[in-house]
Write a structure and sequence with these properties.
It is a single chain. The chain is of the alpha/beta class. Helix 1 runs parallel beside helix 6 (142-151), helix 11 (277-285) packs parallel to helix 13 (314-327) and helix 14 packs parallel to helix 15 (386-411). The protein has 4 domains: 3-165, Rossmann fold (3-Layer(aba) Sandwich), CATH 3.40.50.12160; 178-290, Transcription Regulator spoIIAA (2-Layer Sandwich); 295-407, Transcription Regulator spoIIAA, CATH 3.30.750; 415-469, OB fold (Dihydrolipoamide Acetyltransferase, E2P). It has 15 helices and 19 strands. The protein has a 6-stranded parallel β-sheet with strand order 2-1-3-4-5-6, with helices on both faces. The N and C termini lie far apart (52 Å). Helix 14 links the parallel strand 13 (332-339) and strand 14. Helix content is 39%, strand content 20%. The protein has helices at 3-28, 43-58, 82-93, 95-101, 117-126, 142-151, 162-165, 199-203, 211-223, 249-257, 277-285, 302-308, 314-327, 346-359, 386-411, and strands at residues 34-39, 62-63, 72-77, 106-111, 132-134, 156-158, 181-185, 187-188, 207-208, 228-232, 264-268, 292-294, 332-339, 363-368, 415-423, 429-433, 439-443, 452-460, 464-469.
Length: 470
Amino acid sequence: MTEMAQQFSLQYQNLWIQQLKEIMRARTRKEMPLAMVHTYGCQQNVADSEKIEGMLQEMGFGFTKDPKKADLILFNTCAVREHAEDRVFGNVGALKNIKRRNPQLIIALCGCMMEQEHVAKRIRESFPYVDLVFGTHVIHRFPELLFHCLTDHHRIFSRGDDSEDREIMEGLPIRRDGKVKAWLTIMYGCDNFCSYCVVPYVRGRERSRTPEAVIKEFQGLVQSGYKDITLLGQNVNSYGKDPDCGLNFAGLLKKLDEIPGDYRIRFMTSHPKDCTQELLDVMANGTHIAHHLHLPFQSGNDRVLKEMNRHYTRAQYLELIHYAQKVMPDLSLTSDVIVGFPGETYPEFLDTVSLIEEVGFTSLFTFIYSPRVGTRAASLPDPISAEEKSQWFQELCKKQEEIAAVHSAKKVGAVERVLVEEEEKKPGMLSGRTGGNIIVDFPGSRELCGTFQNVRVTKARNWILEGEII
């Protein structure tokens, strides 16, 4: 989208925003109506919700976490696993009585689930009290869609068209949650089509923001005092593959790292096939880049990896990891693992267990395989029972707990640079994170929130460290 078209589109949306401000005041008889935005799923969904809340704020909304007080409830949904979808449907069902007591309540659903036709059909047929449904590609049109929903007095369902699948709308307002950590989206979509994953179908193909737009937003975050900035993308290290981008992810990361300030850079999620030694060298030589790499391997068995359409082997993954550990001896590694992929055998599962033993991950995000409608894996034979998969899952988690306990024990006595994030519920206790993304709890005053402190580790638990400021 050209800069002129961007400006025109934003002006167009601002017209709806100004009219909605008056419509909502009249509708609710409140100077400041209240919105509740609930987000499911990944950090990209969180970043999308911050844009939605930014638009709502400009419409004159305040915010609440109590659905009974809300004049508008919006769920930003996730389609990656069946459990997430079930939670959404259950929570939408619970809104029926609230809507009955408050017929003026607006209920909206957006996000990845809403890009799926079978989901939209179920919403139409089973949840008639839902007013507005829209997909990931038309978030920037939220004010327009809400305006027509209220003034035309009918339900709106919008997933956009093929042209909107390629658009990146700059300049949307953002209401960030907190003043310490910030999410910064640098690209959208995915071209990998892993056989188990629905993301390319609900998020579209890969497209990168321009380096100029990313750098400008990043500079603004640093100037505003944000200390922990995470670069986001469905496959963040494939940034820059667009023909006219002119900069790959390693190059972008290096430019951002050169911006002066007291901050830390993170990024996720990475794909091993696009993780390069160039990128690892930039991390190793950077000033502000956290020595934490989240690199999902999903399975430690080559046959399963091929069935997953992951485009790397176990040996190639380990070669990357060993190089990363060589150039960054203090590197903290985390990953995603799927247990019970269709056709996986127990010996193949044990290859995954042996890989986590060899690498020594700080922590893992582990999931039992969840079939997704429309993906190739959903049609594969799957003879292993849910009970057996659950046993494998528990075995993997137990092994990772042992590895994590060893990691944590080695930290005792070490001094870590910790970003203080928040005050714990217990008065006088603070919580923060190391550069390796490990949580540390320690005594201190709330005035230290948002600052970096040197903390000596005094005690280790499996996932959390305890310490004292020095």
